[in-house]
Amino acid sequence: MTTQEIADKYYELACQNKYVEIQDEYYGDNVISVEPEHAALKGMQIVTKGKPAVVAKGVAFRELREELHSQSCSEPLVGGDFFSVILKRDITFKNKSRVQLEEIGIFQVSEGKIILEQFFY
């Protein structure tokens, strides 16, 4: 699959909140996930390596939330082996704090799989 095709599938599935399916189908075995440096202040790991660890990170995040009120994904912008989207979520966490999250996700594709995801917020 081309970068454009993967970006289009990411967008289609993200709009349906199907991130588990995105990871299962389109992430490479050695994918790397990078969070911003300030995420460490919230106890998050900055760099996560390998599909099982990246999937586990997603599961852990979803377990923290009480309710997902809304979420959206912008249409992807594609350039070379990269695409980017803007992700927005309105979430109430189990500690009862409600937050609106907005981040830019940049993804690198190689040999038909996402090999890098990096988030900016």
Automatic annotation (TrEMBL):
List, alphabetically, the InterPro entries matched. Answer: NTF2-like_dom_sf, SnoaL_5
What Gene3D superfamilies does the database record attribute to this sequence?
3.10.450.50
Looking at the record, the residues that make up the SnoaL-like domain are 1-121
Question: What Pfam families does the entry give?
Answer: SnoaL_5
Question: What name does the UniProt record give this protein?
Answer: SnoaL-like domain-containing protein
Organismal lineage: Bacteria, Pseudomonadati, Bacteroidota, Chitinophagia, Chitinophagales
